[in-house]
Design a protein that fits this description.
It is built from nine helices and no strands. The chain has 216 residues and is mainly alpha-helical.
Amino acid sequence: ATFCFTLQYAPQAIKNFQRQSTEGFSSTGIIIKLVGAAFLMINAYLTGETASVVLYGVFNVVQHSIFMFQFASYKQDYKFLIWLAFPLIPYFMGQLLPSTIPLTNMIKPGAQVFSHIPQLYVCYQKKTAGGVSLKTQHLNMIGGVAGLIMCIIIEPKSKMTYFLYINSMFQAITLYFVAIVYDNYTFCIPPQKSKAPRTSGFNQDEVEPMLGDANV
């Protein structure tokens, strides 16, 4: 699980770099994810959670911070860089007001749920999942399954840890569904190109294959 979540967003970052764009990739969703990951990372460290949970938070913060650099660069809007300092907020809250930690532990699960809504909305607007790396979703799914098995074997200190891994699987499944509906993806055979004209703003070459075609 830790391995998958370490590499989880690398395919998305590479995809953005290769096309020099974040078109179709929701900045609002990533900001919400960064907020949740920052609270998870700091709270898990302060409360002595298992190393895998702490590392999950750390790697999420690092990866979402990379996206902040990409949004700032490709959108030419450097206000995104302000979000890089956000982890200081949960740190000072945890140090100065430790009684708030049980309450702020709810931020990560909430952020995971609500951060997915802007991305789904962007896909709906553009009628494609072309801006999202499906290789990232493969890692999301595998990491979620592995993390859930780990929780069954080693009882986590917080029950919310179960939710984090289940939600990772749910997010992957919903984006698979969007890709199947809008982009005619299949898991086992190459996708059939639609005869209808595309209006999403993405070239066919920008759209990734699904599991049957992907080199993952």
